[in-house]
């Protein structure tokens, strides 16, 4: 007897019949917590879209009720008492496989960021070619792992510093676990554009229409030249050393204690389930 059907968290659609612009919609209420299913569906969506010879541009958008792009990795995938070494390794490998593939995708990739975008959501966005964020009061962007008591993953930190205007600035933001407001993120080089509330989808479509005209081969090969070696090194490290050693790190008493505090705080906020499982 089969179990209940699990609704998809990631869906693919096309802006027009000619399928030149694909839209990946993120919808896992209430905060798009990025668990194993979420990352697996993201990877499947990317592979599917890349296989379509008509498609030139890929846009990521949140379809949540709240102004959140994604609140980041699901804490339950990182909190050692609620997972296993085997599951964590699978989770980390799937996540790394998706991010490294996205980084060198032959497609023009655009993150349309509505609202908050910490940690895992920020990393997804940083692997895209162009980032637009709205001016909502809740809007923020950054890798805040330090404030939550865990280290920023090695290649996440390297990519963050590569995108930031200077390595020194990137290191400062990472070590402080800072979440930048859109105007700050724009100034730091973390995002490319800020747009008004309610204008995000219109704006990213305008960008997509312009960028889809770029010659595909020249764009894709230049992207590989710029990012290919980095992506390969990240993939090897993330899928082997980091996937295997990461769980041992998460089992350290101080980290278990800190993540329990975060998890209890989220659950104490009237949530439970997914509401208590994001923010990393």
Description:
GO terms for molecular function: isomerase activity. The chain has nine helices and eight strands. 46% of the residues lie in helices and 13% in strands. The two termini are 35 Å apart. The chain has 280 residues and is an alpha/beta fold. It is globular. Strands 1-2-3-4-6-8 form a six-stranded mixed β-sheet, sandwiched between helices. Strands 5-7 form a two-stranded parallel sheet. It has a single domain (10-276), classed as Alpha-Beta Complex (2-enoyl-CoA Hydratase, Chain A, domain 1), CATH 3.90.226. The longest helix has 35 residues, at 216-250.
Output the radius of gyration.
Answer: 18 Å
Number of helices: 9
Provide the CATH topology: 2-enoyl-CoA Hydratase, Chain A, domain 1
Q: What is the H-and-E element order?
A: EEHEHEEHEEHHHEHHH
Number of domains: 1
**Residue windows where pLDDT falls under 50 for at least 5 positions:** 270-277
* Helix/strand/pairing category: alpha/beta
CATH A-level architecture: Alpha-Beta Complex
Pfam families: ECH_1
Keywords: Isomerase
InterPro entries: ClpP/crotonase-like_dom_sf, Enoyl-CoA_hyd/isom_CS, Enoyl-CoA_hydra/iso
GO biological process, one term: fatty acid beta-oxidation
